[in-house]
Amino acid sequence: MTTLHPAIERVTDRIIERSKDSRQRYLDLIRREADNQPDHKSVSCSNLAHAFAGAQEDQEALKTGRGPNIGIVTAYNDMLSAHQPYGRYPERLKVYARAVGATCQVAGGTPAMCDGVTQGEMGMELSLFSRDTIALATAVALSHAMYDGMLLLGICDKIVPGLLIGALRFGHLPAVFVPSGPMPTGVSNKEKQRVRQLYAEGKATRAELLDSELGSYHSPGTCTFFGTANSNQMMMEMMGLHVPGAAFIQPGTRLRQAFDRAAVERVVAMNRGGNDYRPLGHCVDEKAIVNAAVGLLATGGSTNHAIHIPAFARAAGIRIDWTDLSELSHAVPLLARVYPNGSGDVNHFHDAGGMGYVIRQLLDAGLAHADVMGVAEERGLDGHGREPWLDEETLAWREVGESGDAEMLRPASDPFQPDGGMRLVEGNLGRACFKSSAVEQSRWTIEAPCRVFSTQKQVADAFAAGELDRDVVVVVRFQGPKANGMPELHKLTPALGVLQDRGYRVALVTDGRMSGASGKVPCAIHCSPEALGGGPLSLLRDGDVVRVSADDGTLTTTADLLGRTPAPDPEPDMGTGRELFAMFRAFADEAEKGGSAMLATAGL
Fold first, then answer.
1. Which fold has domain 423-570?
2. Which amino acids are annotated as binding site for [4Fe-4S] cluster, given as ranges?
3. Binding site: which residues?
């Protein structure tokens, strides 16, 4: 048996000790919930009639309690390409359930917004809080106490964390996440990036830009770059919450359908009435949370998960912070370079060995916990360290072998870089995350006079006017959870990339988010405490020298901030429903705790 790396063991032990009381309260909760779950025979006939009335051909099986009843929580809509395939999933999943003596019902639906559609628009200010909304919707769906297990249909940015947070409050039930897979590869990522930068410089028309974008995002399925959505799928594999190998199989294929069938079979097998009971709350333990973080670091995944991992860990009574992530990052090597950190997309990643290769390398190097419960038929993470295939019509797994592309995937013994590329930077400007895996090492330290902005538009206007053509640290403040919901600032990337390509030393410092699409410009993001309410960023002035360094972990200014008056807090904007989320903004906690109003007010 491989010996666990001492840093992985040390961080895990620290998280276990820190979480001792809160984790025990959580385990006590789900034990009580399991004991209190009503036997359908003892529930009022009127209640049952309401639940079974629309079940059509499954009504008799439900009435007689013939087998377990599985609740489907779906984030289907057909505006979001990744979730469009889910439209037909419930009817298929019901067929698969009947084949193994069970039933399925759609317990409820959740919102599913697309950050790609709302980038730079007002709707982006609802994005982070949509995670809390999804968690609440999941809880409403599961509150009917009619289910013996959960199938969770979600893929994208806030949706998987939201589903997981909500489902964990029903952690006495088994659960399997059911992805639908990425769209086929379109326009190359290099070409897409080239046209975006040309447009930012005024050298490409809007029509040319739209044609390029449509060539990239062109069909049902998940966007193929390694942003938050695909990082979600990677983490569900690392935690053992997928059928092994399910993450990156394209929609509409026979292999995809075999995975969907297997998900139903597994959740039915794991229900409390069988002999392989695996409640979600026991599958998501401290080791599974560490595995999620390790996978994020080993693959160079989305920085959004520096917010999401602490949030869904809290829902299971587990405490993890950015110091833990940074310490893990120093121990975990970078094994993958997937766009925007490399040239190939997730389809190339999967073809080169994908998650089976990554997990096998991590396990063999002692960098991940093999002994998580998971949902695989063979308990633990080991079964996830193989690649899936169809043996005629049967889903099967085989050894993954060597990397199919050394420019995409490398072994732990010869990684792209010796650490995982997500570092904590801190100092008199607060604490922030720096995604070093996406940035050339020569740019890990930037020290320059700053220019301070409060909106993305102000940055765009200054860029267009040539005011940023110099070495500069661009500070975009009042973008935190309490200020405006902590939107992604992805619209900044092309302009900052142009400045960097012109030879300037450029960095971004913000209390907002940049996601997995942050690209090649050094960024200190999620700054905490945020500017609203007098945080350090509110004290900066144009021309103050700011240092951002992933080399020594610093985020500082040489300016004397003592005695300065904070910039005035901006008034929250109205419209696009933003006023309805005033409660979320008012009660949101800091980014390092997950930026959640719901978890904060629940005392979790």
1. Glucose Oxidase; domain 1 (3.50.30)
2. 156, 223
3. 156, 223
